[in-house]
Design a protein that fits this description.
The protein is α/β, with parallel strands linked by helices. The protein has 16 helices and 13 strands. A seven-stranded mixed β-sheet has the order 2-8-7-6-5-3-4, with helices on both faces. A four-stranded mixed β-sheet has the order 12-10-9-13. Strands 1-11 form a two-stranded parallel ribbon. α1 runs antiparallel to α10, α5 runs parallel beside α6 and α7 runs parallel beside α8. The two termini are 31 Å apart. The structure holds ligand 7TS. The site of ligand 7TS has 17 residues, from α5.
């Protein structure tokens, strides 16, 4: 059996999405900027796709959605654009973010620090959540931007975005949220939430890879990263990825349609999996379930290296992750586990399981069985678990952080 439980890394393209994209590869392949019929033939589909995106995230006509190549690009553009506009060419010098952002935010902030920007990395609590009041404490009159994710990719923790947006508004500071792990998993309404900018990425909600976006409230000016033409209203040059845009529009529409399913069915399967795993002694899951996206659980298996668990699961046909796939080649402790204050042993034993609307009950039953087998086998050969003092092991079984 093959079971894919790494949907926070990427998802399968929904066959309905692929069907809508197909004609835009070989039949309607003109450049939408061309004046001939081949070019203009794609316009209706592009308009429809954009309308679907506006509708899905609650954007208004006066807002912009700029299509990018991925959320990494959206996050880089956001941070570097603000650096250019408000720091290099303004009187600000400070950005507020968190310790648990995706590397596309953290690494860009580290680079900005090398350019002289002050960056505050806010800590999270033991549930992996940043508390809104800490944001207020660190904003100064030199702060150009607050950038805080809507939901965390490792733990699924949902952050208090509305409260943070309120604080930013009160302090007149721009607020960007990385919405990559929120779109398609929980309701996302940018207008209601009051955010100024939001990044997203199609391949996280059953759309194609290589296409993402940046929502920009009220068409706020932001220096372009890619110059060259008048594409995307001059905000981002490059010939439009027509099939990608069509696919992202359809995927967003479907993601909204399936939100209830996500909330009920995907959550029920995630909870079933989590309950069964937590029956094994000395396993810890991060964050209360009601403050998490319905598809994600990050567990820490005391005495078993995360990579060893992945190896055993992979041999059984199950795909999981020890952390962001982008960083999984280095065997450092999971930075999120470290940020929530887990001891280093726990931080090395994190396994992330992320479901999708295509995950079946049968797959979850099989995963439960194989997960238990893997823990048993690996603990039987783990010297660190065998010699662990009894008082470090729990007796009553699992606990939920
Ligand atoms: N932001 C968040 C919160 C993410 O989870 C990811 C990808 C990105 C940005 C980057 O998106 P992309 O469109 O550039 O691919 N996250 C993961 C992950 O958790 N495991 O692999 C990739």
């Amino acid at each position: 059996m093959k079971v894919y439980l790494d949907n926070n890394a990427t998802t399968m393209v929904d066959p309905e999405v692929k069907k809508e994209m197909d004609p835009y590869f070989t039949e309607i392949y003109g450049n939408p900027n061309s004046l001939h019929d081949f070019g203009t033939a794609c316009h209706p589909a592009l308009r429809k796709a954009m309308d679907r995106m506006y509708e899905a995230i609650g954007a208004r006509d006066e807002d912009d959605i700029v299509v990018t190549s991925c959320a990494t690009e959206s996050n880089n553009w956001m941070l570097k654009g603000i650096y250019y506009d408000l720091i290099q060419n303004g009187d600000k010098d400070h950005i507020v973010t968190t310790e648990v952002e995706h590397p596309s935010v953290i690494a860009t902030c580290r680079w900005l620090e090398e350019q002289g920007v002050r960056v505050t990395y806010l800590p999270v609590n033991s549930d992996g959540i940043v508390q809104a009041h800490t944001v207020r404490d660190f904003i100064t009159d030199k702060t150009a931007l607050v950038s805080i994710m809507w939901a965390n990719n490792e733990t699924g923790a949902i952050f208090p975005i509305e409260e943070i947006a309120e604080i930013c508004k009160e302090k007149s500071v721009l607020f960007h949220t990385d919405g990559v792990q929120a779109v398609g998993k929980i309701p996302v309404d940018v207008t209601h939430a009051g955010v100024d900018f939001m990044s997203f990425s199609a391949h996280k909600f059953h759309g194609p890879k290589g296409v993402g976006g940046l929502y920009i409230k009220d068409g706020h000016p932001l220096t372009s990263l890619l110059h060259g033409g008048e594409h995307m209203g001059g905000r981002r040059s490059g010939t439009l990825n027509v099939p990608g845009i069509v696919g992202m529009g359809k995927a967003m529409e479907l993601a909204t349609y399936y939100l209830k399913f996500e909330e009920q069915n995907v959550r029920r399967l995630r909870d079933k999996l989590e309950d069964a795993i937590l029956e094994i002694p000395d396993i810890y899951s991060v964050g209360p379930r009601e403050q998490r996206t319905p598809n994600t659980v990050l567990v820490s298996v005391r005495g078993v290296e995360g990579e060893a668990m992945l190896w055993d699961l992979n041999r059984a046909g199950i795909a999981a992750s020890t952390g962001s796939a982008c960083a999984s080649e280095d065997l450092e402790a999971n930075p999120i586990m470290s940020a929530i204050g887990a001891d280093s042993e726990l931080a090395h034993t994190a396994v992330r399981l992320s479901l999708s609307r295509f995950t079946t009950e049968e797959e979850i039953d099989y995963t439960i069985e194989q997960f238990k087998k893997a823990v048993e086998r690996l603990r039987s050969i783990s010297s660190s678990y065998a010699y662990m003092p009894e008082n470090m092991k729990t007796t009553e079984g699992a606990h939920n952080g």
